[in-house]
Amino acid sequence: MKWYIAKRLLMLIPVLIGVSILSFSLIHLAPGDPAVTIAGEHASVQTINTIRERYGLDKPVTTQYWIWLNKVLHSDLGRSIVSNESVAKEILDRFPNTFELTMFSMFFAIVIGCIAGIISASRQYSIIDYSFMGFALFGVSMPVFWLGIMLMMVFGVFLKWFPISGRISMMISFQQITGFYLLDSLITGNFEAFFSSLRHLILPSIALATIPMATIARITRSSMLEVLRQDFIRTERAKGLSERMVIYKHAVRNAMIPVVTVIGLNFGLLLAGAILTETVFSWPGIGRYIVNAVNMRDYPAVQGCILFFAFMFVIVNLITDIIYVYIDPRIHYG
Amino acid sequence: MFILIPGFIMDKKDIRLRETKSQELIRRLKYNRSATFGLIIVVILILCAIFANYLAPNNPMPSPPELFNALKPGFWSQKGIKGMPLGTDALGRCVLSRILFGARVSLSAGFVAVGIAMILGITFGTVAGYYGGWIDAVIMRIVDIMFAFPALLLAIVIVTVLGHGLGKAMIAIGIVYTPQMARIIRSAVLYIKEMEFIEVQKAIGSSDWRIIFYHILPNSIAPVIVYGTLMLASAILDCAALGFLGLGAQPPTPEWGAMLSKSYSYIVSGTWWAATFPGIAILFSVLGLNLLGDGLRDILDPRLKT
Description:
The structure holds two protein chains of two kinds. By secondary structure, chain A is mostly helical. Helices cover 75% and strands 0% of the residues of chain A.
């Protein structure tokens, strides 16, 4: 087990080097002189030269890469061209918002997806099964940004149950400690802020949760059906165990193995979905930050976000792989 | 099973056994209800795309814009304009016509993106799988690195480099899907490569080129068709997403994602139609392709069934 984790960590190194080269070369791959790209087309020669010097663009590319990598390893992602703030700080400021959004969605997706899948499988070919799987089918084909707009329209504009954009009501001021709105408001005992930020969280999380929820429901169902056909389940039933015990105590545990893999894979989709959901709901997270950065051609910010996203994604995949070994003792990895 | 011996008198039932592969495919598709439904949606979509200029009641991008028609509701309201059944958008353009022309844009974008992914993916995947060794190792490491990014993020990165626009978005999505295709082809090639008939080909001195093009690729066509269809669904979705973010199709191109991004701010004032119908178009196209892809997978490659 230890060896497996060590090996898995070593395998990350080439991937992370590749990711760093890719995000580094972003600015050099863009057509034209990088200094001109940063300064803008109408900048004076002097400005361009200053920028070339400041960003070290006059040095050979390999040297530039080493300097850049060294900075990145010291958590310096450069300065944003637009705001002139440190990119690392801007990303870390926004990270708690994206984290809360993705975690909340994943929670929704796992709980509802698994329950729907289990119910569908235990009542195969019933009306409940058909309707759940029908919903799941629509769910996997749903454009997440459109679903966001529809939720916003129905529950925000027409019914006025939830606010349609932002992270918290602008009327409420409260003290920030960790940057996690829900956590901070609970710590400071500011329940008004807590409920406001929770209400802002609901619609975006539902929108973001739909695709993983549908995928999880489908995979749980098929995995459950496979397990329920096995001999040991027949033995349990023959022993006279109640159907409830058979399903929840024996079948579910064995059916969860492929589900964990799918949950891990869905984190990547969730990060991509967060880019769209945050744009729809004006959510102050990293997803919206990267879209703005791309639109403003703020290369250091784009580079930083890509590194950050890829890093998160790689870590999540690693955790999934480790959990996978842990929950399935039948599989031995060298 | 029957064994057909030439010269035997066969009745009609036996003749059916001699149907070609594609005939068999169509017959089995008919029995798969959801795949049939998917196929119907896809055919409707293709027909809309081809005949958009005959089906659309109005010009999808009149210039100058008919601003006096802006944000008028459709057939469900008295205030609607005749001849604009789904209402108009913020620039007074007919939503229905733009959706029909949008089918053309989205479908062709999807086909081009998947085409790029197939050409690159089949090339790299075949080379990696057939030759193995260090070529395989290098290609697969690059694939691993590309898998370290969520697809949409990688597409955004490539669009940042290439610049905004529909054409560039297609290229970006094509590149993003390449590693997926390469992996699928590689595993198919690895499997087929070890089979006896390839050994026979090698023994009789066929060139690598001949073995790959006449024997390996025709036998790995099933996963290409299945995943090509499913990829087309995600390509349409991702293309719309890029359009929505303002990185793909630029106005006034009638692209579904871009249509949504230009009209969703108006829902606050109760103008729901301009932001609703393009999304339904995306949803049904993706749904149709997913159903068809799943059906094809069940038929062509039952081992892949999930």
